[in-house]
Model the fold of this input.
Amino acid sequence: MGPPGAGKGTQAEGLARDAGAAHLATGDMLRQALREETTLGLEARRYLDSGTLVPDRVVLGLVAERLAGAGEGAGFVLDGFPRTVAQAEGLDAILDRLHAPLEAVLVLDVADEVVVERLSSRRTCARCGAVYAAAGRPTHLEDDRCERCGGTLGVRSDDQPDTVRRRLEVFRAETEPVIARYERQGLVRRVTAEGSVEDVRQRLIDAIGANVRPGAGGGR
Ligand code: AP5
Done:
């Protein structure tokens, strides 16, 4: 968990890969549905574009479907979910049914100005959703291609400064109470998300070391 641009996607993908766990990112799922122009994707568009939250029932439906297959075996890393108290309560019910309790809630802390800087330079593949920091990439990004699939790289519609500010407000109003809820349950591990991707990753591994068994089939 953490504000927009904290590095949730970057870190969750790496942690899940190393643990052999599933990486379930609700933002990625919603953008994929949008690219495929499914009914759900078209319903989600106005929320994504305005930086507000997609209704809880839509997101919970998506997650329940994906978790049904991911609860057994190597476990899962949830990224960008839950974002409201209602989603957290819905997740509790899903995990109870799967007998798969949460082991840790990782919170990435980062200053607002770092978020704005990161998101103004982020480039995302329009075809597969791969994410790139602009640093180290060519400056003429219109000609830039995704290293994974050859798709065109562009700026996410919700990475305009006004929309980023809106997303930060939504995080404070809707998601910080969820973190407080997990803090009361003793699950939260806070990590400073500034510094290099590798430094943040090491802090996360240190924070969850006792909970997760990387490379040994994940957390359960
Ligand atoms: P989502 O896609 O989840 O967006 P977000 O939470 O705003 O997070 P971001 O994807 O912007 O950032 P991130 O923390 O993953 O950072 P990243 O690793 O990319 O959600 C988008 C929208 O979908 C929401 O606004 C909402 O409408 C909807 N939605 C999603 N989930 C929902 C839910 N549960 N309920 C309702 N609605 C939902 O990194 C950012 C950039 O920084 C990248 O360029 C990266 O390369 C770079 N970077 C990462 N780490 C570092 C570092 N250490 N140093 C320098 N650069 C770094």
Summary: Residues 106 and 189 are 5 Å apart (CA to CA). The pocket of BIS(adenosine)-5'-pentaphosphate is lined by residues 2, 4-10, 26-27, 30, 47-48, 51-54, 59, 80-81, 83, 87, 118, 122, 131, 133, 158, 167, 196-197, 200 (CB under 6 Å).
